[in-house]
Write a structure and sequence with these properties.
By secondary structure, this protein is an alpha/beta fold. The chain has 13 helices and 9 strands. The protein has 2 domains: 143 residues, Rossmann fold (3-Layer(aba) Sandwich); 160 residues, Rossmann fold (3-Layer(aba) Sandwich). It has a 5-stranded parallel beta sheet with strand order 1-3-2-4-5, sandwiched between helices. It has a 4-stranded parallel beta sheet with strand order 7-6-8-9. The chain starts with 20 loop residues before the first helix and ends in a 6-residue tail after the last helix.
């Protein structure tokens, strides 16, 4: 059995090593340069809608927002600005959102929330249980999967698809304005500001696509599928391997052999690993890639460091990937 070790996804579920030291260090350093304001760990002090917030004008309306994961929490915090107080429940990189066990602090946060953002598609089903246990007529819920027309069994890593991120930002902004119509103009301004803040993220994607479109790459899990498509990269890893690993299952032996052969023949330019998951088979692939001179780049499920903004985290990872692709190109590896 290829049991996963230290994985945030410890059991099977719908579509759910260490990276190269230099690539991961660069990613974390860049991500730490910008953080999302207004977020707090679940269980911290909450502020009810309609009250004033320390440092703000008396009577400033503030919506209590709960996000299942910190990447959506970052976006909600930026879109809401001074009119939201955001609780991101899952922030620990070693916590599996799919198997997260809620606590009384989470239940209290959900009960007090005016607005809840969940990923959906089976990724954070614990949130559905909290909603059912704390029914409230004043609370609005956004399930990202529903917004995107996705369902359980689909790849739930929606935050790695740039077009999906735009749709989610639009959806959150519209919902906040609906909950607080008096501040609708402010939320429109915030939406424009977030669009500007996402500029470097979009620019990095465009730069990679422009230079490396068609380059063959490998990935150990489905987490990278959406982004590979956005970047125009040719993700050649066996789909059954990626799906099994994302679900915490042993990949089929033929898919392991095929993946190992791709690495041995240097048929991929870069190997992308989920830094929050490791197993004997992925560790072996990483070692083989390193031995064959194939750069290894790590990406994560949750925003890292925990306080990083969505865009700084993503730009850091994209920069590490771009650098790795450039090194591989210089070495003449796996071009289109």
């Amino acid at each position: 059995m290829f049991g996963r070790m230290g994985s945030p996804h410890r059991g099977s579920g719908p579509w759910w090593r260490a990276p190269a030291p230099v690539a991961l260090a660069a990613a974390l350093l860049l991500a730490s340069c910008a953080s999302s304001s207004g977020q707090r760990a679940a269980g911290g002090p909450s502020t009810a809608a309609g009250t004033s917030v320390g440092g703000g004008a008396a009577g400033l309306k503030v919506l209590n927002v709960v996000a299942g994961e910190n990447f959506w929490g970052s976006i909600a915090s930026q879109l809401g600005g001074v009119h939201v107080r955001v609780t991101s429940v899952v922030t620990d990189p070693n916590t599996d959102p799919h198997e997260y066990e809620s606590n009384t602090a989470d239940a209290r946060a959900f009960a007090e929330a005016n607005y809840v953002v969940l990923n959906g598609a089976g990724y954070d089903s614990w949130g559905d249980k909290l909603l059912s246990a704390n029914r409230a007529s004043h609370r609005k819920v956004l399930k990202v999967a529903d917004l995107l027309g996705k369902h359980a069994g689909d790849n739930p890593h929606f935050w790695y698809a740039p077009d999906f991120v735009t749709k989610v930002a639009d959806g959150i902004s519209a919902d906040l304005a609906g909950l607080d119509p008096a501040d609708a103009a402010y939320f429109r301004q915030q939406r424009a500001a977030v669009d500007t803040a996402l500029g470097p993220y979009r620019d990095r994607i465009a730069a990679i696509r422009g230079r490396f479109s068609g380059v063959k790459v490998g990935a150990t899990e489905t987490i990278f599928v959406y982004m590979a498509q956005a970047l125009g990269l040719d993700l050649t890893s066996p789909p059954e391997f990626m799906k099994a690993m994302a679900e915490g299952n042993d990949p089929p032996a033929p898919s392991v052999a095929r993946f190992q052969d791709q690495v041995a023949r240097r048929q991929i330019a870069v190997l992308v690993l989920n830094v929050q998951a490791t197993s004997a088979v992925t560790t072996n692939l990483k070692s083989q890639a390193t031995a064959r001179g194939i750069p290894v780049v790590g990406i994560s499920e949750t925003a890292q460091p925990a306080g990083a903004s969505f865009q700084s985290w993503q730009v850091a990872q994209l920069t590490a990937l771009q650098d790795a692709l450039a090194r591989a190109s210089s070495a003449g590896a796996a071009g289109p």
